Amino acid sequence: MGRNWGQVWHINCDMRGQPLSFELSSSDGKALTSFNVVPKDWEYGKTYTGKQFLL
User: Fold this and answer.
1) CA-CA distances (angstroms) from residue 49 to 29, 35, 46?
2) Is-contact 47 37, C-beta < 8 A?
3) What residues does each domain of the chain span?
4) Expansin-like CBD domain: from which residue to which, for each copy (predicted)?
5) In this structure, what DSSP letter does residue 54 have?
6) How far, in Å, CA of 48 to CA of 42, rounded?
7) Which residue in 15, 24, 52, 12 sits closest to 36, CA to CA?
8) Mind listing the pLDDT tens digit for each residue in 3-54?
């Protein structure tokens, strides 16, 4: 996944039909993971919010 600008990201593969999880890394090396933030039936143009972060 690469950053285009601001909060806009791109990926060079088809991610439709599967749930999406995200891991964020801080500059001090810590990582936060939010699992299945986006459900498998997600649609372009919608906003999804994760409710859990695990250390």
Assistant:
1) 24, 11, 10
2) no
3) 17-55
4) 1-50
5) B
6) 9
7) 52
8) 888 878 888 888 889 998 888 888 998 998 888 888 899 888 888 776 766 5
